[in-house]
Amino acid sequence: MSRKSDRWTNLHDARAAARAALPRMVFDFVDGGAGDEVSARANLSAYADVRFAPRVLVDVSALRLETTVLGTPLSIPVVLGPTGMPALVHPSAERGAAAAAFEHGTAFTMSTTSSFSAAEVVKHTEGPLWFQLYAWKDRALTEEVIAQAREAGARALLFTVDTPTAGIRERDLRNGMTVPPRVNMRNAVDVLSHLGWGWRFRQGPGIRLGTISGLGAVPKTGALGVAGWFGHLFNRSQTWDDLEWIQDQWRGPIAVKGIMTPADARRAHELGAAAVVVSNHGGRQLDGVQATIEALPRVVDELVGTSTEVLIDGGVRRGADVVKALALGARAVLIGRPWLYGLAADGRHGVSAVLRMLTHEIQNTLELLGCADVNDLDRRFLAHPCRPGTGRNPG
Question: Which among 10, 70, 123, 305 has the fewest CB atoms less than 10 Å away?
Fold first, then answer.
């Protein structure tokens, strides 16, 4: 029996299907950014400024998409990145997404603000699990979260460092996407016009933080935007000392997520980070920061000759985007919104469809580019390699 996701041609179709499936307040929570959303849009548009220089008469009859990241073998250089409270879009949430990742031979990254706990998720998948960490100001709470991830068998820890406080996400405030929700005539009518979503939402955990539920950390009241709901937990006094403390707690590979400058990349390397993730939080924190693909070349250049891997997230919507990021030096990319679009529209099958489409596009791009192995990609496959830090071709 054909599923709706079988008819998608690309990730834009998945986004359109998610928009139709979700009430506006929920879709905007997934899709929106901070402030005027300048950085969220830039993440998308900047990929168009990176152009290919294809090689011809190259045997591409046998492609290799496999790579290894943070000690984890991957069938494709795409990892499902961490997203908060995915049960808002579909009741299977992390459980369905992790199962889809396993089906495609890649890793799934749990969020500290996940709907289900890591222990609940690993019951539904045999695939590699990573875990994203916020270093809350309550160290005892943070230590407990790390212990849960370790006990669940997470292979790597992604320490998010760009959230000393929450960004101002105006779509959420305007739509009444607050905790508790602010009900008005518009969003009430919108929810009632999406009865399928409402029925599915009732089947799931609802607005629940599976990782920290039961630890006394979740506020009960306060009409705050969903991001602001966590404001009392974020640590405005966090420093590089927190990374050293987390390393002592974790005792495994750590990636520092939220790096946008060479200096911070160098510091993370010097403190023993196994990887850095070039990330501006999908444009959901500081608005006006450059696109991640623009920041990538300078970070890569800073870490040449070191063992610290470079990953990237933000703005990936095509397999060609993945190939461009790898040609600029990334080891792999993380996707967030794309798998949420798939999940919202068709559950686990929608996430699988997103990964399937990206895999097909990566294969097609490599064939046309004249590169048979993703591990061979470098700036020689780009036209006029980007000036460090601009992501633009020299004019």
Answer: 305
Question: Residue 353 falls within a domain, yes or no?
Answer: yes
d(CA 71, CA 28): 35
Gap between the Cα atoms of 148 and 157, Å rounded: 12
Residues of the chain with pLDDT under 70: 179-181, 183, 213-232, 385-395
Domain that includes residue 9, residue range: 4-381
Q: Is 104 a catalytic residue?
A: no
For residue 377, tell me if it sits in a domain.
yes
CATH code of the domain containing 348:
3.20.20.70
* Residues sharing a CB contact under 8 Å with residue 190, sequence separation 6 or more, in sequence order: 23, 24, 25
pLDDT in tens, 361-384: 999 999 999 999 999 999 999 997
What is the domain count for the chain? 1
Q: Which of 194, 281, 349, 384 is catalytic?
A: 281
| b/e code 49-87 from CB counts within 10 Å (16+ = b) | ebebeeeeeeeeeeeebebebbebebebbbbbbbbbbbb
pTM of the model: 0.93
pLDDT given at position 11: 98
| 388 within a domain of the structure (yes/no) | no
Identity of residue 61: S
Structure confidence at residue 223 (pLDDT): 46
How many residues in the chain? Answer: 395
pLDDT at 180: 57
Specify the DSSP element, H or E, that contains 195.
Answer: helix 195-203
Yes or no: say if 183 and 8 are a contact pair by the CB < 8 Å rule: no
Tell me, yes or no, whether 387 lies in a domain: no
